[in-house]
Amino acid sequence: MKKYILFFATATVAMAGCKKNYLDLNENPNVPSVVSAASLLAAAEVRTAGIMVDPSASYFNVWLDQWAFSPSYAVNQDLRDYRFTNSFQQGLFSDFYSNGFDYQKMIDFAIEQNNPALEGIGRTMKSILMQYAVDVYNNVPYSEAFKGASNQSPVYDDAKTIYEAIYTDLNLAITKFNAAQSSQFPTATQDLMLGGDKDLWIKLANTIKLRILLRQSARADRASYISTHIAADFPGGLNSFLQPGESAIVNPGFTNADTKQTPYWGSFGYSASGSKTGNNDYFKAASYAVSFYTSQHDDRGFFTQKPIGIGVSGAPSMFGVSFRGNEMGSQGTSTLTYSDNINNFAGLQYRFPSDPQAILTDYESLFLQAEAVQRGWFPGDAQTIFESAMRQSYHFMFDATDGSANADDYYDIDRIPDARNDWALATNKIQLIITQKWASINTVNFFESWAEYRRTGFPNVPLSSSLSRGPNIPLRLKYPQFEYDLNGENVAAQGNIDQFTSKIWWMP
Question: Under a CB-based contact definition with an 8 Å cutoff, are residues 254 and 327 in contact?
């Protein structure tokens, strides 16, 4: 790896995000009730980007053995053992609805202003959030959720019904995009993610639809629903989806100033003055993930984890650079140094406060397409698509620092082929695809790995080593306590929620 050669030559728990939810979204009488729908988009996109790496979702990374706890803090035994309560990470629920309300207002204003393009954008972005809300909580408020002060006790809708409604809304969004005039799409300044590109917005909506259908693939009773929509909704075949170089990423001008850094750096990296954030110090790399990357010479480990030094005795290494992870469930050893989950190691730095934040990358889209082809949903070559997904994940991580040619070399030359990363050597292709999605999305998206594990059982990560742990990785979060306090009748109607047995509706 060329950069390596050059180098050798020369007790804070994850903080919750926004606390606002649909119960306190009262309109400010000092702000105009109707504004340009386009004026709402940029700020809403930045908020969505932040939710992809929301500190309130950080424990999903721990459960999936991407991250572990630091020996500098007493391990929270409830979280180590998966035994959390309704007070656990309540901010995530709020963040979904607060940001969803941004898009609902955009939809409402766009309808009033007869702008189908912005209506479609609002529907697409709200669908991303509401899919994840279902993936985390199952039944949630939807049909009455975004009415603000006019309905402070929204009913909880059936999760399957919400999924189907989201899918229908995405089809409606595409209809709106196709009906819109080019002048009705936002400018690149207004649309920080896709620059007002009609074709990319249609592809993004279709890619989310594919992700929704794949979530249901483990349910035999959904086969007819899936096949009907595959046949009817994607006349362009695989060209309907985001392709290499077509990522939904956001960067309004992130810079190294407090509150202006890229969301991941700001939450899990450093302050503008260089001090570690509490989350940076609280979480470390997991030993399972460190071993996964180093044993394959998978250079993506340099993007997701910070080296602890050069040639450290007893520590896993690749190319002479050493890493160390902690075991999930273990306190660790206070005298040892463990890898951070953000790499600013001098001479080998791959993360910066100015980095863009992804909402949906091209390589995630390609992994989805590879799985869909492997399942027989579309004609095509699943191996070619899978290898393109792999390659694009390297480009996403290394092009900005080392250039495209080196990123190709890191995939083609550095990587040691084995059944975990190579199509020809893998006997279970779905396991291969999901495992590599897990490896490539680490530190980029906090939701997908947990969702895919619950759907497929891959990757086969070890459970917490604690002898007092629960029987399995949690299947869902519990509803936040403030819902019981403020919307008690409707949330109580969902029954007793057990994180070990209460499944998300699409789970097998």
Answer: no
Query: What's the token pair of residue 131?
Result: 């899919």
pLDDT of residue 388: 98
- Using left for φ > 0, alpha for ψ between -120 and 50, and beta otherwise, residue 65 falls in left
What per-residue confidence (pLDDT) applies to 14?
A: 38
Per-residue pLDDT averaged across 192-200, rounded?
Answer: 98
Gap between the Cα atoms of 430 and 484, Å rounded? 39
* Ranges of each domain in the chain: 18-62+82-244, 259-355
Asked if the model's pLDDT at residue 194 lies above 90, the reply is: yes
Maximum distance among all Cα pairs of the chain, rounded to whole angstroms: 66
Helix axes 91-112, 116-137, angle to 10 degrees: 160
DSSP state of 463: P
Distances (CA, A) of 352 to 67, 73, 265, 274, 364: 20, 26, 7, 12, 22
For the residues 19-48, what does the mean pLDDT come to? 68
- Please give the pLDDT value at position 149: 75
Beta-bridge mates of residue 140: 157
- What kind of fold does domain 18-62+82-244 have according to CATH? 1.25.40
**SS3 call for 74:** coil
